[in-house]
Each structure stands twice: as C-alpha cells, then as structure tokens.
Amino acid sequence: MGKSVLKPLPNKIRRAEIPDDNISRTVSDSVFKKFFLEVSCITTFTVRFFKEFIKPPYEINELMKQSFLIGYRSLPLVAITGFIIGLVLTIQSRPTLVKFGAVSLLPAMVAVSIIREIGPAITALIFAGKVGSGIGAELASMNVSEQIDAMQVSGTNPFKYLVVTRVLSATLMLPVLVVFADAIGLVGSYVGINLKGNVSAYLFFSQIFQSLEFKDLLPAFIKTFFFGFAIGIIGSYKGYYSNKGTEGVGKAANSAVVLASLTVFLIDLIAVQITSLFQY
Amino acid sequence: MTANTNLTKTDDDTPSGCAVVEMRHLKKSFGNNEVLRDINLVINKGENLVVLGKSGTGKSVLIKCIVGLVEIDGGKLIILGQDVSGLTENELIEIHKKIGFLFQSGALYDSMSVRENLEFPLRRQLHLMSKEKMGLLVKEALQDVGLDESIDMKPSELSGGMRKRLGLARTLILRPEIMLYDEPTTGLDPITSKEISSLILEVQKKYNTSSIIITHDIECARLTANRIIVIKDGICAAEGSYADLEKSDDVWVRSFFE
User: Fold this and answer.
1) For a FRET experiment, which of A19, A94, A274, B195 has its CA 20 to 30 Å from that of A49?
2) What is the pLDDT of residues B32-54, one digit of tens each?
3) Which residues of A29-65 are buried (b: 16+ CB within 10 A; e: fewer)?
4) Beta bridge partners of B8
C-alpha cells in the first residue's frame, strides 16, 4: 500500500471541527433528523387535511371528478392484475396440494389468500404506483407552473380543492377496486383450476363461499380504506410541497410511490397484528 | 379591445393621487437572506408603477406580499385603505378579490380548456352559476385580449403570447381594481411584447386599474410606466419617471436604460 497523501490534522483543529463525534454518527444523526422531520411534516399535513375536510364549503363536483379519474380509470389495470394473480396462484399451489392429497382444498385456499391478503396488498401497490405517483406528479407540476398560487389568488383554497378531494377519492375508491380485483382474481383462479381439471363454476364458487368467514372479509376490507388514505396523503404531500423545477416533479412522483408502497406494507403489518388479537 | 401596438401613454394618464397600495418599512426575509429590508412605496389610483431591479432583488416577492402569497415579516401594508395586518381571513379574501395577478408563466390550468380557465374564477369568486351570464363575460374577456377564436382550445395548444393574454383575460374577468404583473413580457418576441405592453395600457384606460409591473424589459417599462422605482439591496434605490431615471446621475440606475 502506498503512503497516504493525507496529513493528519493537528489535534487542536480536530477537536474544534469534529467535537466528540465521528463522521458516521453525524451522518446517521442527519438521516434520523430528516426522517423525523418528514414524519412531523406528514403528520401536520394530515391534521390539516382533517381540519379542511370538516370545514365547508364541500367540493362535491371535484370529488366526483377525482373519484371517476382515480377509480374508474384504474379498473382495467386492476382487473388484469387481479386475473393474473388468481390464475398464477392457483397454478403454483396445485402441485403442492396434489403432493399432500389436498387438491380439493385448492379453491378455498386460493380464495382465502386472495381475499385476506394478496388482493388488498397487490391492488394497493398497483394503486400506489398509478394513483400515488399520478397525484404527486400532477400537484408538483401545478406547483412548478404556479397554478396552485393562481388558485389561491383567485379566491380558492387550493388545499381543499386539490388535496382533500384527491385524498378522499383515493380512500373511497381503493376498497371498491380491491373488491373488484378480488372477484376477478377468483375468476382467474377458476380458469387456472380448469386448465388441469374439470370443476364446475357452481362447485368452485360454493366451495369458496363455504370456506370464507366474516372475519376473513371484514378486516381485509377495512384495511383498504387505510391503504387508500395513506396513498392519497403521501401522493398529495409529495406533490404539494415539491421543489420548484422539473426535477421536483420527477422526485415528487418517485418518492410518492416509494413512500406510499412502504406505508402500505407497514399498515398491513399493523392490521395483521390487530386482526390476530381478535381472531386467536 | 384588442392589442394595439401603436398605443402610447398621454399626459392624461397621470394618476389622480389617491393611494390604493401603501407600503411602510416593509420587510421580508427568507432564512438569513433579507430580501426586502425597508420598502416604502405608494401606488396611486389609476397609476402604472414599474418596478426594476436585478434578478433576485425581491421584485416578485414584493407583489406576492400584496396578494398574500408571501407573508411579510415587518412594516405596514395598506391595501385600499385597510391595514392588512389587522384583517380577519374573510376580510383578507375580500381584499384579495379586488387584486388581479398575472403570473410570469401565465399559470393556466392545463387540465381545463380556455373557456373553463375563465369560468373557474367566476364560479369560485363570484359564485356565478348561470351559463349564459358566464358565457357573456368569457366572450367579453377573450375579445378584450383578442383571443375569441381560441375559446375551446387547451392551454397547451396556445403560443407563449396567447398564454400570457389568456392569463390576463382570466385576471380581468373579475374586474380587479389593482393589477399585478410579474414579468409580463418575459420570453416573448419584441412584437408580442409590444402587444402585451399595449394591452396593459388598454386595461388601465378601460378599467381604470392601478398596476404594478415587474419587468426587465425596458421597452415595456417605457411604454407602460407612469412612474418607475428601482430596487437595490432590499430598498427603493431610485424613483421617478422614465425620462428622469434615463438621465439619472447614478451610473447603476442609468445602466438599466442603456
């Protein structure tokens, strides 16, 4: 190894510039600081959402428009994904169940998997990618082109008009999309079963309904409202407070997807823990 | 009213002397950066005031303070005779309704058509719902800026000059008493810039508005200004008519006009 070209700092300077800390501690401090600052900002943003949500006037027309754009326009993507998930899950599970002589349980197993976990989680992730990034990019580009300022100047509360409507639409539309994706996923599973067997639709679906219980449906449905809310809030927050410039738009869209997806998993983890408290 | 490039100011345009906006020792900082240190300024009824200054000297911040987009740190801001620091949120909204703001980029709503861009402030501020009445106002505003042919187009289909005009129409449709222009001719060719400058003058004449025009375009300043102020280091460094400042003893001030 060659001789280092860096001369050691005199003790006096080293003490003055790097007090008791080492560099890694300083870096981790700043990461923690950033993390807690971000959490605090999102919390403040969420509190503001509830304040503005309660206060009249209510932007019903914009809410309907956003629900159409967020919900209806996501249907094809959610349908295709749901169908493929149902189909693939059935095809992949079949050999294992055959090995244990439990192939007759395939419809029930797939249905419980889709409705309790895979349907809500996968749909929420797709929703985060499509809607979360869309909201982030749209609000960020409005911010960059001064449209949000223009709205404020023209006597409109931009937070209420842009953020509250989008967050509400995301909260209300995701559960609908999840129910739709679950149904399409079961159809995909039925197709998957019939690729290597011959099961009637009546038998397939009656077995599914016999195996499903209320405790499978309700927690899975309730958590989708939280998923939708988190995706809406994070997308809106990232867009509304984006940096100026085109770089800010890209960053807002990207960070909205990453943070929303991570939050979906965190909520899912918490939801599973809470559900297990009541079920076992 | 359409853009008449031959329109110039006359001595009759001299303001009446009644203040619509008054700033006393106005201060605004961003962190350690003291952008506005001590701004003292009066804008009279019917007057076009042009603000000159280097980039980053706080010219845009100055007009954003007036419209409430930026909160002031100190001093007094009096708009239409009312000190804004003592006003409630609703009173502030009422004051801001009387102020129009033309953004540098036009700030048009991309997802809406030209018609919807103009209907938006009517619905939000005047709570107008009658399609007939809105249609008439939209038509008149578009005629004012010579854009009546583009009513069903999207902002993305308009040229830079047309976007500025549409931005102006959207502001004028609410008949503001005070107009704030943030670099209205930036990024436009000399002919379109002259058209926009002429429109600013026509707006002043037709609606008797008082305007603050932030610009780097000295031709725009020459055409539109009743009075000019030059901002330097957060204070009003010079004030006067175009002719006065053009012959200023201060080399720095004179350099704007060369």
Assistant:
1) A274
2) 888 999 999 999 999 999 999 98
3) eeeeeeeeeeeeebeebbeebeebeeeeeebeebbee
4) none
Q: What pTM did the predictor assign? A: 0.82
In angstroms, the separation between the Cα of residue A164 and the nearest Cα of chain B is 17
Among A216, A211, A214, CA closest to A109: A211
Q: ipTM of this predicted complex?
A: 0.82
Give how far B8 is from chain A: nearest CA, Å: 30
Which residue among B69, B97, B108 sits closest to A155, beta carbon to beta carbon? B97
CA distance B232 to B62: 13
Locate the chain B residue with the closest alpha carbon to A141: B110
Q: Which pLDDT score, from 0 to 100, does residue B22 have?
A: 92
What residues in chain A have their Cβ under 8 A from chain B's Cβ atoms?
Answer: 141, 145-147, 149-150, 152-156
Secondary structure (3-state) at B87: coil
Closest alpha carbon to B112 in A170, A151, A68, A60: A151
Cβ <8 Å between B109 and A153:
no
Chain A environment of B121 (Cβ under 8 Å): 154-155
Amino acid at A268: D
* A204-221: pLDDT as tens digits: 999 999 988 888 889 999
Q: Are strands B227-232 and B235-240 parallel, antiparallel or unpaired?
A: antiparallel
CB contact under 8 A, A150 and B96: no
